[in-house]
Amino acid sequence: MQWIHKNFDQLAVSELYTLLRERVNVFVVEQNCPYPEIDDYDQHSTHLYLEHKGEIVAYCRLLPHHTMYREASIGRILVTQKFRKQGYAKKLMDKALSIMKEEWGETEVKLHAQSHLQNFYGQYGFETVTDEYLDDGIMHVDMILHTKKK
Questions:
Q1: pLDDT for 104-117, tens place per residue?
Q2: Are strands 133-135 and 138-146 parallel, antiparallel or unpaired?
Q3: Sequence-ordered strand ranges (E) for the chain
Q4: Which of 25, 31, 39, 47 is nearest to 68 (CA)?
Q5: H/E element holding 88?
Q6: Quick one: pLDDT at residue 130?
């Protein structure tokens, strides 16, 4: 298995296609949420994913502060169906937060999280900062992690 993180311009067309396909499979098809998955933030993001024998295991996109929010953010967090319940979501979050804190020096990270995942993100120190709200038919909350500079 190999971790890959690339800016939008570094992605080959075939890599981008595969990442977008997996996002649509999870967020649009599997969760039955017809929404505009292509949202003009990909071009400003770092795309982090774990690959195994040409298959995407886990993926998220990392956005620097003042891109989508005032804070840096992690979004489109997914583990493909075949690899779920094997600890890859935790490994993905560990890797994403390591990049944001250690490489980028970010001190605040925001999530637009599905409500049922609050405890999962809470284990990393994310705190819920909004009431629950409906977004694309799924209850969400905003969560923020305050980190310390190295």
A1: 999 999 999 999 99
A2: antiparallel
A3: 2-7, 46-52, 55-63, 72-79, 108-114, 127-128, 133-135, 138-146
A4: 39
A5: helix 88-98
A6: 95
Longest distance between any two alpha carbons in the chain, whole Å: 41
- The C-alpha atoms of residue 145 and residue 30 are separated, in whole angstroms, by 28
pLDDT category at 149 given cuts 50, 70, 90 is low
Buried-exposed string 26-60: b where 16+ CB fall within 10 A, e elsewhere:
bbeeeeeeeeeeeeeebeebbbbbbbeeeebbbbb
Assess contact for 11 and 20: CB atoms under 8 A: no
Q: How many residues does the chain have?
A: 150
Q: What is the pLDDT of residue 48?
A: 98
Task: Confirm if 46 and 9 have CB atoms less than 8 A apart.
Answer: no
Contact 74, 145 (CB under 8 A): no
* Helix, strand, coil share of the chain (percent; to 5): 35, 35, 30
